Amino acid sequence: MNLIEAIKERHSVRHYTSQAIEPEKIEHLQQLVQEYNSQSGLHIQLITNEPRSFGESLLARYGKFSGVTTYFAMIGTKSDSLAETVGYYGEKLVLKAQTMGLNTCWVGLSYKKISSVLDIASDEKLVCLISVGYGATQGVDHKRKSPNKVSAIDIKTAPQWYKQGVACALLAPTAINQQKFKFDLKPGNRVSVKAGIGPYAKVDLGIVKYHFEIGAGKKNFVWV
Protein backbone atom coordinates (compact mmCIF):
# COMPACT_ATOMS: atom_id res chain seq x y z
CA MET A 1 0.00 0.00 0.00
CA ASN A 2 1.39 3.40 -0.97
CA LEU A 3 0.59 6.70 0.78
CA ILE A 4 -2.14 7.72 -1.68
CA GLU A 5 -3.88 4.39 -1.06
CA ALA A 6 -3.40 4.83 2.69
CA ILE A 7 -5.03 8.29 2.53
CA LYS A 8 -8.04 6.86 0.72
CA GLU A 9 -8.45 3.81 2.95
CA ARG A 10 -7.70 5.34 6.33
CA HIS A 11 -10.59 6.39 8.61
CA SER A 12 -10.64 7.23 12.31
CA VAL A 13 -11.15 4.14 14.49
CA ARG A 14 -12.16 4.34 18.16
CA HIS A 15 -12.79 0.65 18.95
CA TYR A 16 -9.89 -1.80 18.97
CA THR A 17 -9.65 -5.56 19.29
CA SER A 18 -7.46 -7.38 21.79
CA GLN A 19 -5.06 -8.44 19.02
CA ALA A 20 -1.57 -7.34 20.00
CA ILE A 21 0.57 -5.41 17.57
CA GLU A 22 3.37 -7.69 16.43
CA PRO A 23 6.84 -6.98 17.93
CA GLU A 24 8.33 -6.28 14.50
CA LYS A 25 5.66 -3.66 13.82
CA ILE A 26 6.23 -2.06 17.23
CA GLU A 27 9.95 -1.95 16.44
CA HIS A 28 9.26 -0.31 13.07
CA LEU A 29 6.97 2.27 14.69
CA GLN A 30 9.67 3.03 17.28
CA GLN A 31 12.18 3.53 14.47
CA LEU A 32 9.79 5.95 12.75
CA VAL A 33 9.32 7.86 16.01
CA GLN A 34 13.09 8.25 16.36
CA GLU A 35 13.42 9.33 12.72
CA TYR A 36 10.64 11.93 12.92
CA ASN A 37 11.84 13.25 16.28
CA SER A 38 15.26 13.77 14.72
CA GLN A 39 13.76 15.59 11.73
CA SER A 40 11.29 17.75 13.66
CA GLY A 41 12.75 18.36 17.11
CA LEU A 42 9.61 16.85 18.63
CA HIS A 43 9.62 14.40 21.55
CA ILE A 44 7.03 11.91 20.28
CA GLN A 45 6.72 8.76 22.40
CA LEU A 46 5.15 5.40 21.52
CA ILE A 47 3.41 4.05 24.62
CA THR A 48 2.54 0.34 24.63
CA ASN A 49 0.55 -1.95 26.93
CA GLU A 50 -0.98 1.03 28.72
CA PRO A 51 -4.79 0.77 29.07
CA ARG A 52 -5.34 3.46 31.70
CA SER A 53 -5.31 6.56 29.47
CA PHE A 54 -8.52 5.38 27.85
CA GLY A 55 -9.76 2.74 30.29
CA GLU A 56 -9.89 5.08 33.29
CA SER A 57 -11.11 8.17 31.48
CA LEU A 58 -14.72 9.31 31.59
CA LEU A 59 -13.94 11.45 28.56
CA ALA A 60 -12.71 8.38 26.69
CA ARG A 61 -15.99 6.61 27.38
CA TYR A 62 -17.84 9.74 26.29
CA GLY A 63 -15.70 9.75 23.15
CA LYS A 64 -16.65 6.09 22.61
CA PHE A 65 -13.11 4.70 22.75
CA SER A 66 -12.50 1.10 23.74
CA GLY A 67 -9.64 -1.39 23.65
CA VAL A 68 -6.89 1.25 23.36
CA THR A 69 -3.60 0.09 24.91
CA THR A 70 -1.08 1.57 22.47
CA TYR A 71 -0.76 5.19 21.42
CA PHE A 72 1.59 7.92 20.27
CA ALA A 73 2.02 10.77 22.75
CA MET A 74 2.59 13.90 20.65
CA ILE A 75 4.96 15.99 22.75
CA GLY A 76 7.24 18.89 21.92
CA THR A 77 8.88 22.06 23.15
CA LYS A 78 6.35 24.84 23.69
CA SER A 79 6.29 27.23 20.73
CA ASP A 80 3.92 28.92 18.30
CA SER A 81 4.72 26.27 15.68
CA LEU A 82 4.36 23.21 17.94
CA ALA A 83 0.76 22.33 17.03
CA GLU A 84 1.38 22.49 13.27
CA THR A 85 4.54 20.41 13.57
CA VAL A 86 2.67 17.83 15.65
CA GLY A 87 -0.02 17.64 12.98
CA TYR A 88 2.48 17.18 10.15
CA TYR A 89 4.61 14.49 11.78
CA GLY A 90 1.71 12.82 13.56
CA GLU A 91 -0.01 12.29 10.23
CA LYS A 92 3.18 10.80 8.83
CA LEU A 93 2.93 8.20 11.61
CA VAL A 94 -0.80 7.72 11.01
CA LEU A 95 -0.35 6.97 7.31
CA LYS A 96 2.67 4.73 7.89
CA ALA A 97 0.62 2.78 10.43
CA GLN A 98 -2.15 2.41 7.84
CA THR A 99 0.30 0.93 5.33
CA MET A 100 1.19 -1.62 8.03
CA GLY A 101 -2.43 -2.74 8.40
CA LEU A 102 -3.01 -0.78 11.62
CA ASN A 103 -5.78 1.66 12.52
CA THR A 104 -5.51 5.01 14.25
CA CYS A 105 -7.41 7.98 15.65
CA TRP A 106 -6.30 11.49 16.58
CA VAL A 107 -7.38 12.18 20.16
CA GLY A 108 -7.53 15.74 21.47
CA LEU A 109 -9.37 15.51 24.78
CA SER A 110 -10.88 12.04 25.27
CA TYR A 111 -8.11 10.54 27.39
CA LYS A 112 -6.52 10.65 30.83
CA LYS A 113 -2.93 11.85 31.04
CA ILE A 114 -0.86 9.14 32.76
CA SER A 115 2.20 11.10 33.81
CA SER A 116 4.11 8.04 35.03
CA VAL A 117 4.51 6.66 31.50
CA LEU A 118 5.30 9.97 29.78
CA ASP A 119 8.59 11.84 29.65
CA ILE A 120 7.65 15.54 29.50
CA ALA A 121 10.22 18.23 30.32
CA SER A 122 9.20 21.49 31.99
CA ASP A 123 9.45 23.37 28.69
CA GLU A 124 7.47 20.72 26.78
CA LYS A 125 3.76 20.17 26.19
CA LEU A 126 1.60 17.13 25.47
CA VAL A 127 -0.54 18.31 22.54
CA CYS A 128 -2.61 15.17 21.91
CA LEU A 129 -2.52 11.39 21.57
CA ILE A 130 -2.94 9.12 18.54
CA SER A 131 -4.40 5.70 19.28
CA VAL A 132 -3.02 2.81 17.23
CA GLY A 133 -3.91 -0.86 16.97
CA TYR A 134 -6.16 -3.32 15.18
CA GLY A 135 -9.58 -1.80 14.79
CA ALA A 136 -12.80 -3.66 15.41
CA THR A 137 -13.84 -2.01 12.12
CA GLN A 138 -12.06 0.04 9.47
CA GLY A 139 -14.05 3.15 10.40
CA VAL A 140 -16.40 5.10 8.18
CA ASP A 141 -15.99 7.98 5.77
CA HIS A 142 -17.39 11.42 6.52
CA LYS A 143 -18.95 14.12 4.40
CA ARG A 144 -16.33 16.30 2.74
CA LYS A 145 -16.43 19.88 1.50
CA SER A 146 -16.18 20.52 -2.24
CA PRO A 147 -12.71 21.50 -3.53
CA ASN A 148 -13.80 25.08 -4.27
CA LYS A 149 -14.84 25.51 -0.63
CA VAL A 150 -11.22 25.10 0.47
CA SER A 151 -9.47 26.83 -2.44
CA ALA A 152 -9.15 30.56 -3.07
CA ILE A 153 -8.83 29.93 -6.82
CA ASP A 154 -11.35 28.15 -9.05
CA ILE A 155 -10.33 24.52 -8.92
CA LYS A 156 -11.36 24.04 -12.57
CA THR A 157 -8.60 26.40 -13.76
CA ALA A 158 -5.92 24.99 -11.47
CA PRO A 159 -3.06 22.76 -12.63
CA GLN A 160 -3.53 19.03 -12.15
CA TRP A 161 -0.97 18.77 -9.34
CA TYR A 162 -2.83 21.44 -7.35
CA LYS A 163 -6.16 19.65 -7.86
CA GLN A 164 -4.60 16.40 -6.63
CA GLY A 165 -3.14 18.16 -3.61
CA VAL A 166 -6.49 19.65 -2.64
CA ALA A 167 -8.22 16.30 -3.18
CA CYS A 168 -5.81 14.61 -0.77
CA ALA A 169 -6.16 17.45 1.74
CA LEU A 170 -9.92 16.96 1.74
CA LEU A 171 -9.34 13.35 2.86
CA ALA A 172 -7.32 14.50 5.86
CA PRO A 173 -8.72 14.06 9.38
CA THR A 174 -9.61 17.35 11.07
CA ALA A 175 -11.04 18.13 14.50
CA ILE A 176 -14.83 17.67 14.53
CA ASN A 177 -14.48 17.13 10.76
CA GLN A 178 -14.49 20.93 10.43
CA GLN A 179 -12.12 21.28 7.40
CA LYS A 180 -11.56 24.97 8.15
CA PHE A 181 -8.52 25.43 5.93
CA LYS A 182 -8.03 27.41 2.72
CA PHE A 183 -5.45 26.89 -0.04
CA ASP A 184 -4.29 29.48 -2.53
CA LEU A 185 -2.06 29.22 -5.60
CA LYS A 186 0.21 32.17 -6.36
CA PRO A 187 2.50 32.87 -9.35
CA GLY A 188 5.58 30.71 -9.52
CA ASN A 189 3.80 27.59 -8.23
CA ARG A 190 3.78 29.04 -4.73
CA VAL A 191 1.10 27.61 -2.46
CA SER A 192 -0.24 29.00 0.80
CA VAL A 193 -2.74 27.51 3.22
CA LYS A 194 -4.44 29.22 6.12
CA ALA A 195 -5.81 27.55 9.22
CA GLY A 196 -9.33 28.22 10.33
CA ILE A 197 -10.47 29.17 13.80
CA GLY A 198 -11.46 26.32 16.08
CA PRO A 199 -10.19 23.56 18.35
CA TYR A 200 -6.90 22.07 17.16
CA ALA A 201 -7.00 24.17 13.97
CA LYS A 202 -3.19 24.44 13.86
CA VAL A 203 -2.80 20.68 14.32
CA ASP A 204 -5.23 20.29 11.42
CA LEU A 205 -3.07 22.67 9.38
CA GLY A 206 -0.04 20.42 9.74
CA ILE A 207 -2.10 17.37 8.79
CA VAL A 208 -3.58 18.91 5.64
CA LYS A 209 -0.21 20.29 4.53
CA TYR A 210 1.26 16.78 4.62
CA HIS A 211 -1.71 15.42 2.67
CA PHE A 212 -1.37 18.20 0.08
CA GLU A 213 2.33 17.41 -0.38
CA ILE A 214 1.54 13.75 -1.02
CA GLY A 215 -1.14 14.54 -3.60
CA ALA A 216 0.61 17.44 -5.34
CA GLY A 217 4.18 16.18 -5.20
CA LYS A 218 6.70 18.35 -3.34
CA LYS A 219 8.71 18.90 -6.53
CA ASN A 220 5.81 20.81 -8.13
CA PHE A 221 5.46 23.73 -5.71
CA VAL A 222 6.87 25.64 -2.76
CA TRP A 223 5.09 26.71 0.43
CA VAL A 224 4.76 30.41 1.17
**Number of helices in the DSSP assignment:** 7
Helices and strands, in order, run as HHEHHEHEEHEEHE
Helix content: 25-40%
Measured distance between first and last alpha carbons: 31 Å
How is the largest sheet built, in terms of strand order? 1-2-4-3
Low-confidence segments, ≥5 residues, pLDDT <50? none
Radius of gyration: 17 Å
Mean pLDDT: 95
Structural class: alpha+beta
Provide an overview of this structure:
The radius of gyration is 17 Å and the shape is globular. The strands form two sheets. A four-stranded antiparallel β-sheet has the order 1-2-4-3. Helix 1 crosses helix 5 and helix 6 runs antiparallel to helix 7. The mean pLDDT is 95. Helix content is 35%, strand content 17%. 40% of the residues are buried. It has 224 residues and is of the alpha+beta class. Strand 6, helix 7 and strand 7 form a beta-alpha-beta unit. The protein contains seven helices and seven strands, in the order H-H-E-H-H-E-H-E-E-H-E-E-H-E.
Secondary structure elements and pairings:
Elements: H1 3-9, H2 23-40, E1 45-47, H3 52-55, H4 58-62, E2 71-77, H5 82-99, E3 103-107, E4 124-133, H6 160-169, E5 181-186, E6 190-195, H7 201-216, E7 222-223
Parallel strand pairs: 6-7
Antiparallel strand pairs: 1-2, 2-4, 3-4, 5-6
Helix pairs in contact: 1-5, 2-5, 5-7, 6-7
